[in-house]
Hints:
By secondary structure, this protein is mainly alpha-helical. It has one domain (2-386): Na+/H+ antiporter like fold (Up-down Bundle). It has 19 helices and no strands. The protein is globular, with a radius of gyration of 22 Å. The N and C termini lie far apart (64 Å). The model is unreliable at 392-405 (pLDDT under 50).
Amino acid sequence: MLLTLSLIILIGFSLSELAFRLRLPRIIGLLAAGIVLGPYVLNLIAPEVMAISADLRQIALVIILLRAGLSLDLKDLRKVGRHAILLSFIPATLEIVGALVLGPWLLGLTILEAAILGTILAAVSPAVVVPKMIKMIDEGIGTKKSIPQMIMAGASVDDVYVIVLFTSLITMAQQGTFSVEGLIKLPTAIILGVAVGLGLCFLFVGLFKKIHMRDTSKVLLILSFAMFLLTLEHLEYIPFSGLLATMTLGLTILAKYPVVAGRLVKKYEKIWVFAELLLFVLVGAVVDITTLSSVGLLAIALVFGMLVFRSIGVFIATKSRKFTFKEQLFSIFAYIPKATVQASIGAIPLALGISNGSTMLTVAVLAIIITAPLGSLLIELTKRPLLVQKEPVAVTVDTDTSLNK
C-alpha cells in the first residue's frame, strides 16, 4: 500500500504538472495517471487500495463539499436561489429524455435500459465543478451575479436527484415494477439532508463558542461527522442525502460563525491538495479503457447528443433578464463535466445482470473520458471572456516624500 500511495503522489503530480505546462486542466493529468497506474494498464495500484477506492473517493468528495459550503455565502445564494433549484433537476431531466430518444435509435436499447443509462450519465460531477467554482469566487470572476455560487449549489443537488431516479429504475429492471415510493424518497432525502445539516451546525457553533479547541481539531471533528452522514445514505428505510447535509453544514457555519468558517476553509484548502490528487487518480483507475475497443462512433454520438439535451436544460434553467447570453453559455460549459457518479454507478447494471449492462458501463467510461477534460478546459478558457470580473481595488499612491510626517 505504501508503494501505491507513493506512485499515486509521484505520477499524479508529474502528469498534472505536465498537463498544466501544456495549458490543459490538471485533472487531465490526474485522470491519465489513474488510468496508467490502474488495473487495466500497468496494474500498479495495490488490490487493497482498489478495494477501498470508493470510500477514499467519498472522503475526498466530502472535503470539497465542506470547503464549498464554507465558501458559499447565503446572501449570494439568495440572489440566484430559483435558478440554482432549476439547475438541480432540469438539465438532468432533459439529458435523460435525450437518452430515451437517442439510446434505442443509436444503440438498440429498450426504453427502460435507455432510461437507466440516462440516469448514469445525467449527473454533473461536483468533484470537478465545485473546486473550479470556488477558485472563481476567490478570483472574483462571475461573483457580481453569483454565477459560481449558483452552479455550485445546483451541481450538488443534481446528484441527489439523479441517484434517486437511478435506484428506482434499477429496482424496476430487477422486479419488473416501477416503485412510486422511490420517487417519494427524493424530496424526503433533500429535506432530511438540509435539516440534519442545520442541526449539526447549531451543535458545532455552540460547541466552538463554549469550548476552546484548535482549528485542526475542529476540522477533524466536522470531517468525521460528515463521513458519518454519508453512511446514513445507505440506510434502506430512511431516505437521506449525506452530501447535501454536508454542504448545508458548511454553508450554515459560515452564516452563523463567519470568523471560524474563514479559518476552517483555509485548513480544508490544504487538505484538498492531497484529496484532489487521490480522488481523480482513483477515478481514473476505475476507468476500464479495455471496454472502449468495442465502442463505436454511435456511442460517441450518444454522449454528445445527450450533452445537447443537457445544454438546452441549462439554458432553460438560467433563462432570465438577470443573465446575459454569455453567462448562460458559461453555465452550459460548467455543467458538462462527469466523473465521480459515473465511476461509482456505471458498473452496477452489469454487476446486477441487467441486459446491455456492459454497453452502459462502456458509455459511462466514454462519458468520463470525453466530458471531464472537455468541461474543465472550457471552464478555464471561457470564464474570463464570458463573465464579469471583480474590479481591481484602486490604489492611491502618496507622492509626498516629506520627512516631517
